[in-house]
């Protein structure tokens, strides 16, 4: 499949996937702001680096005329999508679920980070192929 | 000097001696005001406090008041009590001393309990559980509210009731929740009636019934507990816990 098409779909997945968690934490910030900054300090480093990469690289692509279309393996694209969805789902479920449990939120989010770490590594590897390699292609041209 | 001494009334002379004694034995201001077991000089700094009305105006002995207060507390669920005597301001530091202090009052502290935002005690086992308990989700709307607002912080409270013939002042600092557990263990499990029964009730200016409320908030996010200034008055706390009505009823019997 076309690399640019793959980038578009991943961009949409990441933008839509991070929105629920960010909106929920934002709502809680205005409702009960006691120590909510600890939740933000967990959420933002989990999503912003990858989201920044995806958005900035696609923005650069949008302003550049690509000389040659580039293809990427469909299976690889599907694996990238699945890993991105899994990663974003873990974050969203953690943010939604912590008020319903007994232990303090920071303890639950710490435990979720144990699972999130390995998934984040895989996601970064896949998105690196889609975005960083394309960025290098744009710089060379 | 001889003429001065012979003309000085006895009362004035005793007062001068008392002042000299006070100057050499300053009042204690420890965090918990406990200088020996079962003696409490000053209650710690409270979230809110008030001077209560005299719920037992017919009582003539401190022991009678203490017995009634103990019954009221037990009936209201505060079976775990810590009892202390309040010594006279003119008593020496009793730590290591073989002489018992002159008792002018008593203090009783309750166990740390979890409360609702209204000041009512939590139901069931959650009342005495110090860890954050999962929020009660009764309906879908409750779940949505919890999702958008987050879990509420835990609120905890300790009552310290004091009856003293003399005025009462607070210490400068407040204890942590762990300190209250130790403090409760230090006190006697019941009123020290043998000591208190010999003390007559004689409220001077500023003497009487006092209630000190210690309130703590535990963050639902970090789990950390901190001492807070209460958003409710001591009277509201006593009414919400049922103690105010129970004490009023005890006075009518």
Quick synopsis:
The complex is a heterodimer of chains A (141) and B (253). Chain A is mostly helical and 141 residues long. Chain A has helices at residues 3-31, 37-62, 74-97, 105-140.
Question: What is the N-to-C order of secondary-structure elements of chain A (H for helix, E for strand)?
Answer: HHHH
Count of helix runs of chain B: 8
What share of the residues of chain B lie within helices?
Answer: 25-40%
Radius of gyration of chain B: 21 Å
Describe it for me?
The complex is a heterodimer of chains A (141) and B (253). By secondary structure, chain A is mostly helical. Chain A has helices at 3-31, 37-62, 74-97, 105-140. Chain A is elongated and about 55 Å long. The mean pLDDT of chain A is 87. Chain B has 253 residues and is of the alpha+beta class. Chain B is 30% helix and 19% strand. Chain B contains eight helices and seven strands; from the N terminus they run ααβαβββαβααββαα. Chain B has helices spanning 2-7, 10-24, 62-75, 140-149, 177-186, 193-196, 234-241, 243-252, and strands spanning 48-52, 81-87, 103-110, 113-115, 154-164, 208-218, 225-228. In chain B, strands 1, 2, 3, 4, 5, 6 and 7 form a seven-stranded antiparallel β-sheet that branches. In chain B, strand 6 and strand 7 (225-228) form a beta hairpin. In chain B, helix 3 packs across helix 8 (243-252). The N and C termini of chain B lie far apart (58 Å). At the A-B interface, helix 1 and helix 4 of A face helix 4 of B.
């Amino acid at each position: 499949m076309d690399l640019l098409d793959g980038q578009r779909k991943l961009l949409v997945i990441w933008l839509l996937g991070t929105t629920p968690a960010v909106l929920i934490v934002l709502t809680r910030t205005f409702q009960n702001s006691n120590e909510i900054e600890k939740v933000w300090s967990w959420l933002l480093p989990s999503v912003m680096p990858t989201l920044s990469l995806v958005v900035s690289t696609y923005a650069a692509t949008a302003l550049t005329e690509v000389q040659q279309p580039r293809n990427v393996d469909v299976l690889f694209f599907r694996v990238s999508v699945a890993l991105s969805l899994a990663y974003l789902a873990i974050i969203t479920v953690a943010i939604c679920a912590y008020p319903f449990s007994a232990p303090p939120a920071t303890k639950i989010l710490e435990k979720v980070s144990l699972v999130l770490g390995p998934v984040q590594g895989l996601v970064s590897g896949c998105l690196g192929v889609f975005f960083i390699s394309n960025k290098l292609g744009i710089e060379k041209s | 000097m001889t003429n001065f001494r012979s003309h000085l009334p006895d009362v004035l002379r005793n007062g001068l001696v008392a002042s000299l004694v006070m100057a050499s034995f300053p009042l204690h201001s420890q965090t918990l005001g406990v200088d020996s077991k079962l003696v409490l000089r000053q209650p710690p700094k409270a979230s809110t406090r008030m001077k209560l009305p005299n719920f037992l105006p017919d009582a003539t002995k401190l022991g009678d008041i203490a017995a009634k207060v103990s019954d009221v507390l037990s009936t209201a669920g505060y079976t775990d009590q810590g009892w202390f005597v309040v010594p006279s301001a003119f008593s020496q530091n009793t730590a290591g001393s073989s002489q018992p202090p002159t008792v002018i009052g008593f203090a009783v502290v309750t166990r740390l309990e979890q409360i609702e935002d209204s000041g009512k005690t939590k139901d069931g086992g959650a009342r005495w559980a110090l860890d954050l308990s999962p929020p009660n989700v009764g309906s879908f709307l409750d779940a949505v509210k919890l999702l958008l607002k987050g879990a509420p912080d835990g609120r905890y409270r300790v009552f310290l009731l004091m009856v003293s013939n003399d005025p009462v002042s607070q210490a400068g600092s407040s204890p942590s929740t762990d300190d209250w557990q130790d403090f409760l263990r230090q006190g006697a499990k019941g009123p020290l009636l043998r000591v208190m029964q010999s003390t007559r009730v004689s409220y001077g200016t500023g003497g009487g019934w006092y209630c000190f409320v210690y309130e703590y908030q535990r963050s639902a996010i970090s789990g950390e507990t901190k001492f807070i200034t209460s958003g409710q008055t001591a009277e509201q706390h006593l009414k919400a816990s049922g103690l105010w009505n129970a004490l009023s009823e005890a006075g009518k019997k």
